[in-house]
C-alpha cells in the first residue's frame, strides 16, 4: 500500500484554536493510524492577512499537544516541494503558464471597473450568481497587450458533471455550469488559494485531504484543476462543523467557551485532556469509553466513524475530561503541575512552607477541574481573616454553635499534637457531646475553624491550617 501522506495547512492569519486543532489532530491520527506521514504546510499567500508570531505559536501549541509533524518547513524533505507557499510563487506561475499552453487557462485583461459593470449588468438581468463572461478568451480589441496587467483565469468547461467521493459525505456531484472562470493567478503574481492548494498537494504527494466543511465549496474548482493537469486526485474528507451552544459555528466570539489553545494552557488544562476531548469532536469510537490517550486514539482511529452532523463544543465536558486526566497524574506530577498556577501575588509561599503547600494541594486532587481553579480554594489557608455575612448567618442558624465552638476551642488547646487522627476523634467527641452528626455537626465546625462553608476533608484541612490560625479564626467570631 502506498504510504499515506496527510497535511494540516494553516494560514498564519491567526493562532491555534479548537477548530484548526481538530483539523490538525484528525489528519495526524489518520496518518499515524496507517503508519503514514503528517505534514504541516504554511499557506501564507495572503500576505496582508498574515499575523506576526502566528506560525511560531501554531507550532509551539501543536508540540505542546503532542501533534508532531514528520515534515514541515522546519523539517523539510527533498522531493516534496516547499513547505511554505510564499516560497513557491515562481512555481505557481510556471504551472499557470502551462495551463495557458494547454488552453485550459487564459489571460484576462478586464479591469476591476469592467468586471463590476459586467456584474451589475447580469444582476439587472435577474442573474443571481453572476459569472465572468469569458470575454477575454476570445478578445481581439486590445492594443499593446504586453503592457497591460492581467489575471490568469481557469477556462471552465460548460455543463460537465464532476463527482467526488468524500469520506464523510459519500458521493458529491456538481455541475461545472455553477462555476465561473475563476482566477488562478492574480495580476500581482500571487496564486489564489484554489490553485496553490492543488499544486502543493500534488508536489507533496498528499494522499488524503482532511479539512473543515467550509472548504467543500472550493473542492469543485480544485477537482477541475487536477483534471486539467491529468493528475490523480487525493481522497477528500470534509469534517462537519463544530458549533457552540447557540448552534453557530464555534469562533472567538462564542460566548461560553474559550477558543484558543493558549487560553486553555494558561488556565491549567493538560495537553492529554485537550487532545482527548478534541478527538471526540466530529468523530467517535465504538463503545462508551470517553477517556483515551493519544496512543489509544492512534490505534482505534477509524475513518468510517466521522460524524455526519455538526458537533457541539461543550466546555463543561472539556472541563470534566481535564479533571479526569488530572486525577490520573501521580501525586508528584499533580503537585508540580498545579503549583505553576498558584497566584503568587495573592498567596505568597514562604520557603519553609514548601512541603506544607504540597499537602494542601493534594487535598484538592479529587476536585480540581483545571490548574488555576486552585486559587479558589487557597483562601482558607492564607488570607481568610473574616467571614462574610452570609457565612455568619449560616453558622448562626445552628442552635448549639456557640457552645460547640467554646468546647472545641478548649479541647484544641489541650491537644498534644495536631494530627489528622486526633482531630477526627475530636470532631467525633464533639458530635457525641452535643448529640449531633452529619451536616449538623460538620458545618458549624467547618465554619468556625476555617471561616468558610466549603472546603475539602475537614480534619485534614484543620490540621493543615494549623493550630495557631485555627484558634485565631475561632477568636475572630463573636
Ligand atoms: N489554508 C486553509 C485554511 O486555513 C486550508 C486549506 C486546505 O486544507 O485545503 O483553511
TrEMBL record:
Its EC number is 6.1.1.17. The keyword Repeat does not apply. It comes from the Bacteria. GO terms for biological process: glutamyl-tRNA aminoacylation. Residues 344-475 form the Aminoacyl-tRNA synthetase class I anticodon-binding domain. It is found in: Cytoplasm. ATP binds at residue 252. InterPro entries: aa-tRNA-synth_I_cd-bd (IPR045462), aa-tRNA-synth_I_codon-bd_sub2 (IPR020751), aa-tRNA-synth_I_CS (IPR001412), aa_tRNA-synth_I_cd-bd_sf (IPR008925), Glu-tRNA-ligase_bac/mito (IPR004527), Glu/Gln-tRNA-synth (IPR000924), Glu/Gln-tRNA-synth_Ib_cat-dom (IPR020058), GluQ/Sye (IPR049940). A motif ('KMSKS' region) lies at residues 249-253. It is an enzyme of class 6 (ligase). GO terms for cellular component: cytosol. It catalyses: tRNA(Glu) + L-glutamate + ATP = L-glutamyl-tRNA(Glu) + AMP + diphosphate. The keyword Aminoacyl-tRNA synthetase applies. HAMAP family: Glu_tRNA_synth_type1 (MF_00022). Monomer. Catalyzes the attachment of glutamate to tRNA(Glu) in a two-step reaction: glutamate is first activated by ATP to form Glu-AMP and then transferred to the acceptor end of tRNA(Glu). Belongs to the class-I aminoacyl-tRNA synthetase family. Glutamate--tRNA ligase type 1 subfamily. This is Glutamate--tRNA ligase. It comes from Spiroplasma taiwanense CT-1. The lineage of its organism: Bacteria, Bacillati, Mycoplasmatota, Mollicutes, Entomoplasmatales.
